[in-house]
Every structure is written in structure tokens, then in C-alpha cells.
Amino acid sequence: MMRALLLCAGLVAALPALAKAPDTSLRPVPRPAATQAIGTATTKVISLRPHARPVRRKDATTTQVTQKTAQITATQTAASARNTEAARPANLDRPGAASKPQASSTGGGGLFKSLRPLLRSGKVTKEARAIRRTRKKGAVCGDLAIQGTPVGRVTGHINGCGVENAVSVRSVSGVALSKQSVMDCNTAKRLKHWVDAGLKPSVGRRGGGVAKIKVAAHYSCRTRNNKRGAKLSEHGKGRAIDISGLYLRDGTEVSVLKHWNSRTYGKMMRDMHRTACGPFGTVLGPKADRHHLDHFHFDTARYRSGAYCR
Asked: Are strands 175-183 and 210-217 parallel, antiparallel or unpaired?
């Protein structure tokens, strides 16, 4: 009982002390930081920006390796570019240089030294120009593939004969004629078309290919089949050519008369005859009549019903 009275007396004595407010704030004191003036008072501002983490040894090593690799790559690229520029003039000046590009010595399947095609040497260029000038001088009808000489106006003793602006053709698309043949330019161009699209494919590689065309007749002021009173032949107008055969590059002679029905050259001769139908308006061969057993007759006459081919 006495102990309870003493405890109550102690609590009564302590009440004034508990009722008194503390002199200092119970908030935690912030860590030191920069201060910012607000009005006349000064307030401490706590920085919320986190500090950078210290670089670990492994991260630093990786960064250094990456930077070193980038430097090496840049150095190799610059060296490859210098090698390319240095190699171009040498390759261009060498006439016999290999056309296959060489890989850079930096390895890894890098840049090619030069992607430009090698220029021909001065000697080759001069020879090509000389050949072109020669062909240009000998070209007729405005086509380098038709070689010959201009003839001009040709007249005849029969009314209706003659050719305006005639040419004398000696070769067509590299195939020589056995004799220079006088005709107009339209006939010369049709002959070239047949040589390119008909004669050469028909012969193919037999005997090394076709070397020369054997000409039986070209311009001639006469009637058809030399018959008195017949119509004027297309030969008398410079629009026709008769071909009796050809020579292969190995020296073999193939003739219409001997080989039209032969096993060796028969199909080739018929192909030559067939492919002329179209480029020429009239195509006659051994099956046409007895006058054409030994040659093909080609002329550029045009008919309303189309080409006449027999």
C-alpha cells in the first residue's frame, strides 16, 4: 500500500515536466548539402541525383577492348583505301594485267583493289581505230558491214534498165563475194540480213563456217531468162543477185547444182533457200523451173500477195 502511494506521488510530480514542449525538433537531421536562399531565410537542399557507380575492373577492361577494336578497324579501312588508290593507276597502265580483281592484303575478304575494267593498251586501241577507219572508208549504204564502192547512176541499152545510186559490193558481214556485185542499197541491205539471219545459221560450223558466196549474176540489163520479148528482169534494175554456191573456210565448195539433194549438204541448201523468203520478195531455186537448177535467184521485188518463193 505504501509503494502504491509513493508511485502516485511521483507521477503527480512529473506531470508539469511532461506538459512542457521540447526545445528541439524530433525530425532527423538531413546530411550536409548545398544551401539555397529563399527570401531572407536560408534552407538546406538535399540533392536527389544518385552518385555514379564506381567502374568495376571487368567493365573497364571490356570498354578498353572495344575501343581498341574500333581503332584497329578504322586503321585497316584507311589502309585498304590507300592501297586501292595506289593500285588503280598501275592496273590501268598494264595492258596485260589480269581482269580478275585481287583481294586486299588486310585479310578477311576485304576490299578489292580496283573495280574498274582494265583499259585496252594504246597499241590495241590504235589498231582498232585503224580497222574502223578502213572499214568506214570502204562502207557503203551507211553500214560498216556492207563493204564496197559507190558507183552512182548506172544506165542500160534497154528501156527501163538502170540503177540510181548503185553500189558495188565486195563483202557482207565479213563474208566475201566471189565477184563485186552491182546493186542498189535496198538489195545490199536485204542481202546482209539474209547472210546474218539465214546463211550463217544454216551453215553453222561446217568446214569452219562460210567464207565466200559464189555469185553467178548481179546487175545485167536484160529480160527475164534472156528471152526475147519477155519482161525486164529485176537484174536490169539492180534489185537481184544469183547465187550458185558458197565456199567454206576449209576450202570446201558447196554448189546448188551438186548438193541440193545431197545427204551431206542437202538440208543446209534447203535452209538457205527457205530463210531467204521474206528478206527477199522473190526466191527461186532448183524446184522453180529448169532455168534455176544451178543457182538461187533472189530479188527485192514486192507483191501484194507477199513474197513469191519456189
From this structure: parallel
Q: For residues 17 and 34, give the distance between their C-alpha atoms in angstroms, rounded to a whole number.
A: 38
Taking phi over 0 as left and psi of -120 to 50 as alpha, with beta for the rest, 39 belongs to left
pTM of this prediction? 0.59
> Which residue shows C-alpha cell 540510181?
164
Kindly report the CA angle at 202 between 200 and 205, in degrees rounded to 5? 70
Residue 244's Cβ-side half-sphere holds a number of Cα atoms within 13 Å equal to 12
Phi, psi of 143 (to 5 degrees): -135, 120
Domain boundaries, the chain: 140-309
pLDDT one-digit tens code per residue, 71-115: 666 666 666 656 555 545 444 444 444 444 444 444 444 444 455
Q: Which helix (DSSP H) or strand (DSSP E) does residue 154 occupy?
A: strand 143-154
Structure letter (DSSP) for residue 112 = B
- Would you say 279 and 198 are in contact if contact means Cβ atoms under 8 Å apart? yes
Determine whether 279 is exposed, middle or buried from the number of CB atoms within 10 Å of its CB (0-12, 13-18, 19+): buried
